[in-house]
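Colleagues,

For the teaching module next term, I've prepared a clean inverse folding example: a structure given as tokens, and then the sequence designed for it. I'd like students to try predicting residues themselves before seeing the answer, so please don't circulate the second half yet.
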């Protein structure tokens, strides 16, 4: 019998505890058991509440409880990021993903609200990073709404763009003889510019203001057109053809319209 040093035994015990923790988190974040579903639903509700706070932040910034809420949310997001990192099989690869990098930037604006105040408008990007996970889409797919994923994503992209631009305009041009005296004015300017209505009652000053307006119009129109295409085009499902790879088909398609290969598209309700 070979004696195992005590230090080595402790290390093995520590590794097994750590592996157990990662396995537990992986089940909670990615599993489909009743407990995992309840956990994911709780995380989703907390995320939506945090996003609501981000939207209302410009209006709450001068209240006494703002910093307390700010740091509390920073703690919640820190725990969520660490837990999601432990739950993944390849933490370093996960850390390089764009949604994760954006979440880290958002966390930095929460941890240092005084230094990074001008970047607070980036927090609404949390709504976009949330849609990069299965927390939002898995419940919809179980209820047979998976076919509307592209449309819902387009609506979310539009909302995120509106609030990011509104925050940027409010931070950069408020009180600069632009007619923007508050957050609602910045939101009003963003929407009128995106829709190319252009009433002219609020105009961003200088060359930089004109360039910002041009960018808002170009991207805004593109997002509106994308949303309109998804709303009015025939509803399709995502199912790659094994023969040619065409990924979108009518829900009742029997053969691929590109190559004629026989398809076996599952019903939305099948799990």
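(Answer key — instructors only)
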């Amino acid at each position: 019998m070979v004696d195992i040093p005590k230090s080595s035994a402790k290390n093995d015990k520590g590794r097994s505890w750590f592996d157990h923790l990662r396995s537990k988190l992986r089940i909670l974040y990615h599993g489909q058991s009743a407990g995992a579903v309840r956990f994911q639903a709780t995380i989703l509700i907390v995320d939506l509440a945090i996003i609501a706070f981000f939207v209302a932040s410009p209006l709450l910034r001068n209240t006494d409880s703002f910093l307390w809420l700010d740091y509390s949310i920073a703690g919640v997001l820190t725990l969520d990021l660490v837990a999601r990192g432990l739950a993944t099989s390849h933490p370093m690869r996960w850390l390089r993903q764009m949604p994760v990098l954006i979440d880290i930037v958002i966390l930095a604006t929460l941890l240092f609200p005084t230094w990074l105040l001008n970047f607070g408008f980036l927090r609404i990007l949390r709504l976009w990073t949330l849609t990069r996970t299965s927390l939002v889409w898995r419940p919809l797919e179980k209820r047979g709404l998976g076919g509307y994923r592209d449309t819902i994503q387009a609506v979310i992209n539009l909302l995120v763009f509106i609030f990011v631009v509104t925050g940027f305009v409010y931070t950069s041009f408020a009180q600069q003889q632009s007619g923007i005296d508050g957050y609602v004015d910045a939101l009003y300017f963003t929407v009128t510019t995106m829709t190319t209505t252009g009433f002219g009652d609020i105009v961003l000053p200088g060359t930089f203001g004109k360039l910002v307006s041009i960018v808002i119009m170009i991207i805004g129109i593109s997002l509106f057109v994308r949303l309109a295409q998804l709303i009015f085009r025939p509803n399709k499902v995502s199912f790659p053809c094994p023969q040619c790879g065409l990924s979108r088909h009518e829900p009742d398609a029997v053969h691929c319209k590109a190559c004629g290969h026989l398809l076996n598209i599952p019903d939305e309700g099948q799990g």
